[in-house]
């Protein structure tokens, strides 16, 4: 578990809020990032229900993409509680070798999955 989740949250916040129309609000006590009409595209969880993990949780296109990500890099990705059955995937942020470019790419991809066409035309990346 990250001894300083504040720095990981600051990075996730910077990445998420740089996307068009992105906003932040608490969701079940944790920071969540959404666009209009409350469509969430990312969450930040730290030690959620005592799991010892610091993670960003993002949407995937479907269960197949979720399973592929987990299979390709199980040290980074896992199926999170509650959101996992709906195709979301968690990315561990508490490792020294966290690939922040990959985190940014997955957050942007998640944003693209919920954004309406007019926002997509503004560009997500």
Automatic annotation (TrEMBL):
Entry's InterPro entries? YjbR-like_sf, YjbR/MT2646/Rv2570-like
GO MF entry, a single one? DNA binding
Record keywords: DNA-binding
Pfam families, A to Z: YjbR (PF04237)
The answer, when asked if DNA-binding is one of the entry's keywords, is yes
Q: Which domain of life is it from?
A: Bacteria
Official protein name in the record: MmcQ/YjbR family DNA-binding protein
């Amino acid at each position: 578990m990250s001894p300083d989740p504040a720095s990981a949250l600051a990075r996730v916040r910077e990445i998420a809020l740089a996307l068009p129309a992105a906003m932040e609000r608490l969701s079940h006590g944790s920071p969540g990032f959404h666009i209009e009409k409350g469509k969430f595209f990312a969450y930040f969880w730290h030690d959620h229900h005592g799991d010892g993990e610091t993670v960003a949780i993002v949407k995937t296109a479907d269960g197949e993409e979720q399973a592929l990500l987990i299979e390709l890099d199980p040290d980074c990705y896992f199926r999170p509680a509650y959101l996992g059955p709906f195709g979301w995937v968690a990315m561990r942020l508490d490792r020294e070798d966290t690939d922040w470019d990959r985190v940014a790419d997955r957050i942007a991809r998640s944003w693209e999955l919920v954004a309406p066409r007019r926002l997509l035309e503004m560009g997500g990346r």
